[in-house]
Amino acid sequence: MFTGIITDIGIIRSVEQKGDQRLMIECGYDMDSVDLGASISCSGACLTVVDKGEDWFAVDVSQETVSKTAPGQWTEGGRLNLERALRVGDEIGGHIVTGHVDAVATVTRADEVGGSIDLTIEAPRALGSGIAPKGSICLDGVSLTVNEVEDAGDTTRFTINLIPHTAGQTTLGGIAEGRKLNLEIDVLARYLKRMAEARA
Questions:
Q1: Which one is the CATH code of 103-199: 3.40.50.1820, 1.10.1040.10, 2.60.120.260, 2.40.30.20?
Q2: 47-69: string of b/e by CB count within 10 Å (b at 16+)?
């Protein structure tokens, strides 16, 4: 489990094809405190540490993960939002995030408003019932608050406000129209949606 509060930005040093993709990710974490087998959220995808060094860790990215996440994300030189797994007693500054990506969303508008960025994002309509005004959403591993929601045909459009601090501490700085993002709906909304579907 995670909270969507990013604690580092990792850089993919290398990508090796070994059945799955083996990524070596440079980071600023004290790797002595990271165990092999630990979970780290990498731009919203929960991945397992399979090797590590002084300033890096390695993960295996399966074809399933590649198929369910933003295209081109797992490439050499790519930047990833990192968050270590939540520990009992940690502050939950964002919201409960599982690290299981529900869909890839697309930025359709990015406007500067004051010092912030007002984003309009499109997601598959099938997830629309799990996105609510003033609810939480996770985009590329970042916990954000939904402002407005509108269902339109086979998509759901929603808006968020990206404050300068969040833009500066994550890979969302400089975000522009057309950007693809890993989306995870709120875990409570996920279960409520499933319960409603089962009743129908």
A1: 2.40.30.20
A2: bebeebeeebbbbbbeeebeeeb
CATH T-level assignment (fold) for domain 8-84:
Elongation Factor Tu (Ef-tu); domain 3 (2.40.30)
Q: What are phi and psi of 166, to 5 degrees?
A: -65, -45
Q: Which residues contact residue 133 at a Cβ distance below 8 angstroms, ignoring those fewer than 6 apart?
A: 146, 147, 148, 149
List per-residue pLDDT tens for the chain, 200 residues long: 999 999 999 999 999 998 899 999 999 999 999 999 999 999 999 999 999 999 999 999 999 999 999 999 999 999 999 999 988 777 788 888 999 999 999 999 999 999 999 999 999 999 998 999 999 999 999 999 999 999 999 999 999 999 999 999 999 999 999 999 999 998 888 778 778 888 87
Distance CA 66, CA 104 (A): 11
Cβ(143)–Cβ(97) below 8 Å:
yes
